Fold this protein.
Amino acid sequence: MFTRKIATAASTCITAAVIGVAALGLVGTANAVSPAAVSTMSASVVVGDPVGAATYWQRQHGDDCAEMAVADVVGEVTGRSPSEAEIVEVARNTPSTVTPGPIYTGDAAGGPADADASTGGTASEDIPVLLANYDIAAVLSHAENATAGVDEIVADLVIGRKVIVGVNAEIIWGERGDRTTADHAAVVTGIDLAAGLVYLNDSGIDTGRAETISLDVFLASWSTSDYEMITTL
């Protein structure tokens, strides 16, 4: 859930004429993929490194999808991912910039760490703060629309930046439930626009390592956060 808070829904919790984008209805008079993005690709080219990033995927066991996304990014950037217990401990000892208390109040097992605490997930604004503990600078932003968002992610992946997005897990996983709210965080590790595919490291499911979903499913899920992303600098 967003307040803007991300929790795990597991417990709630180019190009060949830009075929992939056009087929999904993303190209319009005001929504065209930029020439800069198109010029960087050829047909069926995966932008990013989903295979390399898969090394740093870990399964979450609590309401800590944001923490696990951060751990994944730390691994991709530094070559070593903190364990779930380690990243949760850091989050539990880092003050939130959004709410009184720490960034995360739960434990890695999914229950409240304190008798009077609730597992409310992690505010998306606190994700750059958590990354800063590992000397990784990042910024939170929202894309203007779907096509602008894809453009931005592609441009970031091309130059090696890492991208965490706020999404709706029910849409991604094809499950019943609330499909209107961003309730999960995942790392975008690759995009193939020609094939219309997005690659995620998704800590919320057992098959989340280099998880492959269609671009239209990704955009439907991502739209619930108003195309929110946390990007390393």
Strands lie at 5-6, 47-48, 122-123, 138-142, 163-167, 184-192, 197-201, 211-214, 228-232.
